[in-house]
Amino acid sequence: MNEQALVQIKNLSKTIGSKKIIKNLNLDLYKGQITGFLGPNGAGKTTTIRMMVGLMKPTEGDVLIDGQSVKHHFEESIEKVGVIVENPEMYKYMSGYKNLLHFSRMHKGISKKRINEVIEQVGMQNRINEKVGSYSLGMRQRLGLAQALLHKPKFLILDEPTNGLDPAGIWEFRLYLQKIARENGVAVFVSSHLLSEIELLCDRIAIIQNGELIDIKNVKELQQSRFYLKAEPLAQTEEILAGIGFPVSRHDGGLLVETEPEHIPGAIKILVNAEVSIFAIQPFQATLEDQFLELTGGGEIAQAHTK
Amino acid sequence: MLKLIQNEWMKLWSRKSSWIMIILLAVILFSSSAITKWVDNSMNTANTETWQQLEAAEMANNLILLENNSLGDVRREYLEGEVAIAEHRLENDVAPFDSNSMQQSVIDSHALMSLVTLFTVIVAGGIVAAEFSQGTIKMLLTRPVKRWKILSSKFITTMLYALLLAVVLFIVTAVAGLIFYGVSDGTYLVWNGSEVVEGSFWLEGLRLAALSFVNVLMISTFAFMLGTAFRSSSLAIGLSIFLLFTGVQAVFLLANYEIVKYYLFTHTDLTQYYTGFMLVDDITMTLSVIVLFVYFVIFMAISYVTFGKRDVTA
């Protein structure tokens, strides 16, 4: 993908008091791609997102959205962004419709027709005229999504979006996000602590810890094919496999072989010919959770900073 | 900007308290007229003096006051005018309005402007602070609208609400006066500096109300600033109402010091230049306007700077 990034986070830093909460963060986000933002509590996810949408001012660095700086051209850059920061707090004393009307007036050229269209998209037609105070958390999430989509943003930022949705809601939500990413080329940035959710939703995952970006991975890469092999004698097996060009590593009293399934029968034949006793061979799937814990050092919570 | 004000206006009227305050204002004004009427009826025997006797007594009193050489210019001019009007009334047999009449109620309507201040302060202190306490501030500030525009729309909406309350005050006072007291015979006279001429009581009432509105403006701007800077509506409302009632008292404490001339509450009541109740003798309208303007600019500057720079973590 040699495409120009839609969103560029450049050398973003935030110091509060004497503590550097975000340390020189660099990250590019692309059209049509859903990027997950993972990190233990207190790693700086929310602070980063707040700086991206102009709620907090970066101490250093900047965020460019479609080439426009959030710092210097706030209106032009934010126009292209739809935001849900944590729980979408709405005006509880007004109806859902009035809330949407309220936010639509803050953008240019949103018609009543567009408001109704969005209401239908998030499936809120039946209760849109009731006061938000009477909504369940799930319904507020839907309304939150509706307000973020009103102005057809090119870039959607979601902080813990599935919080409070029921399983069917989460499923629908996931399909919907993937659809607007694919079909409308929207870049999506989702922070969540629900690892399994991120795994299903995202194309790419950025991992942050203690204010530093420690890894960016494509989900496909994470789901690469690996096999777990238990055989005797182990050292000899490892030597043979490495000798014929398989990437091998030790794992849990056996070996992990990185390869595509079609190479497995051939490998077994070679091992049998070398008189290795094979006890088990099975596909190995490390969950994102395992990898996340591995990367963040057991998921220990970063020193909490004062919010 | 118009759309932003429309938004704030919609939010304002979606809350019950905004309606309650307007209704409460009307109810208080009506019942105070009714109570005055009732009190007067039950002791109407006491009031047997004619208007001529009252005018003459007041004129004599004013003449005694005028003999005092240390009188400030504004106060002296006012008293001379009053004496001239009283002389004119007695000579030409022109009666003033009855003290309980629709016309006198209109002229005095500004006296209850502090109720408008009280209710406006509640809106002014909460209009920004509530966005923070409800958490809606983050939805509001992640829109393609600069922060100063949002703050301006909130300030303008507060002032529109105050204006509406002031209009309600004026109209309800007139209507209640008409219902409870009726129209009195009499003529409104003014001293224009060289002679006594007839004036309009409507215009006089409006002028005094407009001057009192400056007080509403100043105190609610103060509450607006506190609500914006501290994000706490209770602090903003409490402190502003406290100052509304005690601020003027401090003028008397400070009266012997030069600083009293630059103290906000020495100047907030601009009607003092027309009703003769000067708080401090040697101040002028020009000085008052300048001092009020400087305070206003400071209050606004603090509001805009804190709102514009704040990191939103709510």
Automatic annotation (TrEMBL), chain A:
Keywords carried by this UniProt record: ATP-binding, Nucleotide-binding, Transport
Key word Transport present: yes
GO molecular function annotations of the record: ATP binding
All copies of domain ABC transporter, residue ranges: 7-235
UniProt keyword Lyase, yes or no: no
Family: Belongs to the ABC transporter superfamily.
Protein known as: Bacitracin ABC transporter ATP-binding protein
Organism of origin: Planococcus salinarum
Taxonomy of the source species: Bacteria, Bacillati, Bacillota, Bacilli, Bacillales
Automatic annotation (TrEMBL), chain B:
Transmembrane segments: 111-134, 155-181, 201-223, 235-255, 283-307
Higher taxonomy: Bacteria, Bacillati, Bacillota, Bacilli, Bacillales
Name of the protein: ABC transporter permease
Keyword Transmembrane belongs to the record: yes
Record keywords, A-Z: Membrane, Transmembrane, Transmembrane helix
